[in-house]
Amino acid sequence: MSEFSLTPQLQLSVEQFYYLEARLLDSRQYQQWFELVSEDLRYIVPSRVNVMVNNRDRGNEDMISIERELEGAESEGCPIREEGYLQMMIRVERAYKMNSWSENPPARTRRLVSNVEILADEDESLKIISNFHLHYARPGNDNYLYAGQRRDTLRKAEGSYKIAHREVVLDYANIDYPTIGLFF
What we know:
The protein has 3 helices and 8 strands; from the N terminus they run H-H-E-E-E-E-H-E-E-E-E. By secondary structure, the chain is an alpha+beta fold. Strand 6 and strand 7 form a beta hairpin. The two termini are about 25 Å apart. The chain has a 6-stranded mixed β-sheet. The chain has a domain at about 10-35 and about 85-170: Nuclear Transport Factor 2, Chain: A (Roll), CATH 3.10.450. Keywords: Aromatic hydrocarbons catabolism, Dioxygenase, Oxidoreductase.
């Protein structure tokens, strides 16, 4: 990771980008949200497994590292979701089709983004981690709370940013959510 100078203006611009993204998604303005996505998007939600602690690693942070639990594109496991620009475009378009029964009536969501940390400023992109809570309510059903961390690469674009890579690490022990088909 290269050293860079974090300025209040940079921090504010990134946070404002995430707040705009959350507002667009919660307002169901998926087409406008999709404009925030880069054409080379890589969007991954790795599955998590329960890994036993290796006693040989005692005294080492790797012993209990979250990275050991993740099964994504680079591991032998299977991610929950792994999508690119085209798949996301289809999902956005499907939300506005008459036969989109899975979202009728549409769910009510509220996203809270916090702990936004800029890790690196590399050439034309930023490496960022942030935490989120996503409240999900559907009329006639229970309410659910999704929580996790997003690991993003934002590409600088015309005074704003585009999401080039997003890895969503969900915090769950058992998947008992009604859907994982949300935009996190």
